[in-house]
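ok trying again, last paste got cut off:
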Amino acid sequence: RATMKSLRFISAEALVSNAELARKSLSSVAHNLFPLLFKASYLLEQGEVIHDLVENWPFVDFNVGKLLGTTVDCQEDLSHRTCSVCLESCLTGLRDYVLNHSSPYMKKLKVVDLTGIKDVEVQVCECKKTMGRWARTQLLSKLCLELLVYLQQRQCYPGIFGISIDVRIDLFVTEQNYELVTQALLKKCYCPLKICCVAFRTDNLALQKFFYIIKLVDPSLLRKLEVVHNVRLEMEHLEMLFSSIHFPLLMSLTLPARTFNVRRFTSTDEQMLTNIGEKMGEMTQLTELSMSFSILTGRIQKLLSPLKTPLKMLDVSNCSLNHADMTYLANSFHANHLEALDLSGHNIPDLYPSIFFKLLSHSSSVLRILTLEDCNIQDTHVNMLIVSLSPCQKLEEFRFLGNPLTSQALKHLFMFLCELPMLKNVEFPVPKDCYPIGITYPIDDASLCRFDHQKYESVAEELNLILLQANREDVKTSTPLFGSYDAAVQETKNELGAYLIKSFKETLEKFTSSLNETS
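nice, full thing came through this time. structure:
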């Protein structure tokens, strides 16, 4: 797809396309052209030129997201290109900026911001090799430690010890890179490159290690905390975390599955839940909360009412919410501010249709993303769904996988979806009539792929034709059978897979051992 480029940008592309010439010419290039040359080099994947540009960066800040975003000279946004060649060149260039013997008076760089890089499913860079968030965490930590070793072993120019550059990054830590990242954070004060963690994600990590590293990242600067999947953080651990550490700037919190389970609550647990709610109330910046696959029946109000700032994003998928929970949500001050809402795994049509309608009507002026997967929405409920969605004129994404809807009902729904002016992305289920008769919902993983693929393709074509006839080819449609793409999970799937196999093996051994003891 052609994008608008200025004559300046086309000239910059021509220069950097000859890497040898561009590198020789840098010393005579005006400083105000460096951002232009950087984006042109990134677009053409000229790693050596990128390295030299960063090594000689003439400004106080180096913000990758802004440099690669839409600019006057080139409208194409490259911030979603996590090209391995380009990003590695950026980071090694940064290391060499510190080691470069040019006059310390020439070195102005104080802040590097890597947080604007977006990890997406489809990469359009030619090398097709990505450097995801985990790999960026790994490489930056490695370079910081290498830099320290170099400073200890070599005779360095005096000015190097006066260099202090804050590197803002979204860290992603698992068991596999834990030791490396921990060492880099522990020695941060001695390194010219200072890792400044803005967002922290952890998966597949022992609780003890999580509690240790979270203190090292400087929680006072943290804006986003994601504790996911294979971190066994339960409610008592969460209370301990919030009691011992303050997160004054935290805007987004994601908790792992089964953090809460009200079915086994005691009076002590009730008090613990109250304490957690109060601690979250002290986080005045908190606007995004995800706590899927916890059992929170009847406790949503206790957890959310202490919050002083309205939530903009709420994920309570598969949380076993009851009528009282939904009533609280619909009537709370959060409802008028919700931009993203996930209610997956709740039987909305049967349990609380009118309350759901009220909740959507309250959030309709701002709601952009709605997820209703596995909600038992059937053909008879489509008209109710259309009425509920009608006020949501700002809706951009609608996901409703796993609902027992026939192809006829989907066509009816798509006729309506064409009318939502801001809609960009729709994830719809495989039609019920593509599966064998008698299929039960929710469909188990083993049966998920056992449908008439030819019939599905035919229905998908018809649905896209409905959009096309309404001049809505801007709307992307898909049926990701196993859920939406998650860049972080995709990047660490080998490690997570190995962990799951190990856990399964250990469970099997314990079971066999207990059987042997009883026999």
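cool. The longest strand covers residues 193-202. The chain has a mean pLDDT of 93.
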